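queue> pop job 88
queue> type: inverse folding (structure -> sequence)
queue> payload:
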């Protein structure tokens, strides 16, 4: 099958569903069939519904192919009306179903739109700023080696005037070594604590006077810059905030509709599900246990304690206590090798 044939097959259903669009100002006429005129805007609407791999095809292939399929759809449409199919029960059933779905969608969208106000967006942005305060970022280089003696020798060479980038390329065993040890900008929580404490304490332009030990080895760190990163402006996050607000409003509307309506669900046997649940509750045994049962279950006062019982002093620590030696999960790749 040729590319053109596959494209025609894939757009056929979409083009048949496309409605006759009114020409827009400056719209380009791309096809005619009988009394029908097909414009570029309608073709572009179909293109937007295609799979991504087809949308990337050249316009000289896409536009004529889709315009042709829309034209064929217009011919089918005319034949259907000539046969009076608009009054066919199957057509009417599908039209009614489509109408119910459309009015439901339009009603919900308008109900949501009415509650997405500028005030609510500003409140959401204020909360966003509280959750995303300005952060401090440091740009640094490091040289990672296996032992403290080698790290100290590198520091001595730096004191003698050696170039940090050259030493990193020669000695660092970390993946950033070939780039002169450059780690770029990072926040305090993106590296292990031992590394962060030193890197954020050093002044830009200075390097460590002694090796810094972490679980990955021994580091020589040079800080190049430090900056304050401000949270994004309102305009940058407005689409995200709007979407989040719309989702919240939609959930609230649906919950309110459920609470205000008497919805009865039925099981496969045709009986209301709630009635079945009530019946199960009625058949459940009484939770109040008779006093005799409690007395019979109680152990004798002179019963000897189990010899295997562990004394309180030997209780094992809680399973969720953090391991002291656990490495930081958010260490960047450059510092975990």
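queue> result:
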């Amino acid at each position: 099958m040729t590319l053109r044939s596959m494209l025609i097959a894939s757009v056929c259903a979409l083009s048949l569903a496309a409605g006759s669009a009114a020409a827009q100002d400056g719209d380009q006429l791309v096809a005619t069939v009988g009394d029908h005129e097909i414009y570029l805007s309608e073709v572009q609407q179909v293109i937007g519904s295609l799979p991504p791999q087809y949308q990337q095809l050249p316009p000289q292939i896409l536009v004529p192919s889709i315009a042709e399929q829309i034209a064929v759809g217009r011919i089918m449409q005319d034949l259907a009306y000539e046969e009076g199919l608009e009054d066919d029960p199957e057509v009417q059933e599908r039209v009614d179903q489509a109408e119910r779905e459309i009015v439901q969608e339009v009603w919900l969208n308008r109900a949501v739109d009415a509650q997405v106000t500028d005030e609510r967006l500003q409140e959401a942005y204020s909360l966003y700023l509280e959750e995303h305060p300005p952060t401090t970022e440091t740009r640094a280089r490091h040289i990672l080696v296996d032992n403290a003696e080698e790290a100290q020798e590198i520091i001595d060479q730096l004191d003698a005037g050696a170039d940090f980038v050259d030493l990193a390329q020669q000695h660092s065993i970390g993946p950033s070594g070939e780039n002169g040890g450059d780690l770029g900008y990072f926040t305090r929580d993106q590296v292990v604590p031992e590394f962060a404490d030193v890197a954020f304490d050093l002044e830009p332009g200075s390097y460590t006077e002694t090796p810094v030990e972490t679980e990955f080895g021994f580091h020589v760190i040079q800080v190049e810059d430090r900056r304050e990163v401000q949270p994004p402006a309102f305009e940058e996050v407005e689409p995200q905030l709007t979407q989040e607000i719309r989702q919240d409003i939609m959930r609230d509307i649906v919950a309110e509709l459920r609470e205000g309506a008497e919805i009865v669900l039925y099981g496969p046997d045709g009986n209301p599900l709630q009635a079945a649940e009530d019946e199960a509750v009625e058949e459940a045994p009484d939770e109040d246990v008779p006093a005799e049962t409690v007395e019979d279950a109680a152990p004798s006062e002179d019963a000897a304690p189990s010899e295997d019982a562990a004394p309180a002093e030997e209780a094992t620590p809680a399973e969720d206590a953090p391991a002291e030696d656990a490495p930081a999960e958010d260490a960047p790749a450059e510092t975990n090798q």
